[in-house]
């Protein structure tokens, strides 16, 4: 003897079927046993989870008037000493990254005190070859 199925509303079926659309929910009784909808029922209004899931956020507005030029800000990282020296005996490494273009210079150094000399090479290159003046330097 088959078990009698109690009809459910369209809203309840919509929630139970993972917020499927109304047309899909109406076809469900034909796909599976034990599903029966109340005749004449319909979705009353869009449910809050459906509205939240289908909503779109507007893109954040970026201020185009503030433009960062290359070499406005450089970031310096120094690593070392490392346990294995390079072929020439360098045990320190220094990277200088331009925050606007993400261009990076890498220097090998024998001593930690060579940082100033490597920075001066990059600063003079930017000024003489490209015409950019360094405005700020960040480091650890």
UniProtKB/TrEMBL annotation:
Molecular function GO terms recorded: nucleic acid binding
InterPro entries: Retrotran_Ty1/copia-like, RNaseH-like_sf, RNaseH_sf
Top-level division of the source organism's lineage: Eukaryota
Record protein name field: Integrase catalytic domain-containing protein
């Amino acid at each position: 003897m088959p078990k009698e199925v109690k009809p459910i509303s369209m809203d309840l079926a919509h929630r139970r079927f993972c917020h499927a659309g109304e047309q899909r929910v109406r076809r469900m009784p034909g796909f599976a046993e034990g599903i029966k909808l109340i005749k004449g029922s319909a979705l009353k209004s869009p449910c809050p989870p459906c509205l939240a899931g289908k909503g779109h956020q507007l893109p954040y507005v970026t201020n185009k008037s503030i433009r960062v030029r290359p070499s406005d800000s450089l970031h310096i990282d120094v690593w070392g000493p490392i346990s294995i020296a390079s072929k020439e005996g360098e045990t320190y490494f220094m990277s200088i990254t331009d925050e606007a273009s993400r261009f990076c210079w890498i220097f090998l150094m024998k001593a930690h005190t060579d940082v100033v000399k490597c920075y001066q090479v990059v600063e003079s290159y930017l000024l003489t070859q490209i015409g950019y003046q360094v405005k700020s330097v960040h480091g650890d």
